[in-house]
Amino acid sequence: MKKLIKYKDWILAIFILSIFFFYSDKKIVLILKETMFYYKEFEVFKEIFSKIVETFHKIFLFLLIVFSLYLYFFKNKKLGKSLILSMIIAGIFSQIKFLIGRARPKITYDALSFVGPNLTYNYASFPSGHVFFLFFISKILSSEYPKGKGFFYGLAILVALQRVLVFAHFPSDVIGGAFLGYKLGEFLHKKLFKA
């Protein structure tokens, strides 16, 4: 029983992902497709929203790299080094999607379409790498800079919504990416930043 309580987050995540895999993923994507077909204004909103979020995401990542290098060379070498190392580790881990090989919604509405390990963009849907990395870095940055917590997680949530709206991912892809990124951030924060 104690082991189950210890792993309650993982059990809950698997349960939620299962519901999305088998019930909601396909329905949500089809509803979005229909909405965009019948309401052209929604398509315009999607394009504008997507460009804005994409721009903020790129600016954030650029500033994060500059900030990490600034910390390493001028302010706090240990914190800068931990931040740079953790970003490299997260970047590598976020590529597990190529081992899983789930088809993107742009390819098929079948949420259970897996081809296995490959290096094709179209079959690298689960988990969302963008969302994985942003929730990972949000956990670390909000632990180090608690006042920015709303901004960090807000941006991560906006990117998650954008990835679903542009049919790059099923909803379960972004939920899985968020959960795994957060958990890796929690783990690495204890190992790299608190050591």
From TrEMBL:
Protein origin, superkingdom: Bacteria
Gene Ontology terms: cellular component: plasma membrane
Ranges that cross the membrane: 7-24, 55-74, 83-100, 120-138, 150-170
Keyword Transmembrane helix: yes
Compartment(s): Cell membrane
Record's bilayer topology term: Multi-pass membrane protein
Keywords (A to Z) from UniProt: Cell membrane, Hydrolase, Membrane, Transmembrane, Transmembrane helix
GO molecular function: hydrolase activity
Domain Phosphatidic acid phosphatase type 2/haloperoxidase: 79-189
Pfam families with a match to the protein in the record: PAP2
The protein's name in its UniProt record: Phosphoesterase PA-phosphatase related protein
